[in-house]
Amino acid sequence: MNFHTKPIQFVGHVKIKVEKLERAINFYKDVLGFGILEKMKREVKLTTDGKTSILSLVQPEDIIPKQGRTTGLYHFAILLPTKADLANIVVRLTENNIRFGASDHLVSEAIYLHDPDGNEIEIYIDRSPSEWRWEHDEVAMAVVPLNFEQLLTHVTPEKWKAMPKETIMGHIHLHVSELKKTEVFYVNGLGFDVVNRFGRQALFLSSGKYHHHIGVNTWNGEGAPPPSTNSVGLEHFTLVFGSEEDRMKVVTNIKELGADVTEVNGTYITFDPSGIKIVLSI
């Protein structure tokens, strides 16, 4: 089953702020293998298929370095199509002396790294949904060591040159200031289901029984403040809905919760209880 196509709602695009746009472009293009779909003076739209953008980089005029212990981006997650792709990018990063971590989450296998500005990136593959273990509408996930010996048996003779065209934005994980209001907003407002409660400090939410499209945590501290608007980090992320009817239902639900939704030229924008900007798209 494809968990990133309509009518399932999913994260379609992420926009992050960087200090030096050209430096960031070099990293995402030359090291990770993204293509450039459109380049402007202070912004670039990146692509994997040459048609759509799943990631944008922007350099605000008054940009400041990434602020710690705030809400916002924990990581955005790039979903690769095959295990060979994950193995090949591990070799690519190693050859370029890029430091990275790794985990086996039972539902997926992942590596983690930072871009030159400190924005965290997850690059992962999903295990077959038939291997996911569900109990009482919660999916089992864990953080255990990744078996690199087994992974690297999938390396192919062709060196990593570019992100495969089937690569998509798999999910986003956010630092939030608290969980109670956050859960109400994402469940009753945006229409996601809680599929895993990771202790008392993190929630994982999804649509259509995916392991998660959105993760939220309070690991930067309960009551963590939002970063300055000109800080390196998340500018916004985009949720894609199955239809205009689905989107308008969400708009109504958000307003009933007392949150604001702004419409600008057919685009709807809202903010979660931690001040994180979300674009509602179809």
Automatic annotation (TrEMBL):
Record domain VOC: where: 10-126, 168-282
UniProt-listed Gene3D superfamilies: 2,3-Dihydroxybiphenyl 1,2-Dioxygenase, domain 1
InterPro entries attached to this UniProt entry: Glyas_Bleomycin-R_OHBP_Dase, Glyas_Fos-R_dOase_dom, Glyoxalase_1_CS, VOC_core
Pfam families attached to this UniProt entry: Glyoxalase (PF00903)
Superkingdom: Bacteria
Keywords linked to the UniProt accession: Metal-binding
Name of the protein: VOC family protein
Annotated organism of origin: Virgibacillus halodenitrificans (Bacillus halodenitrificans)
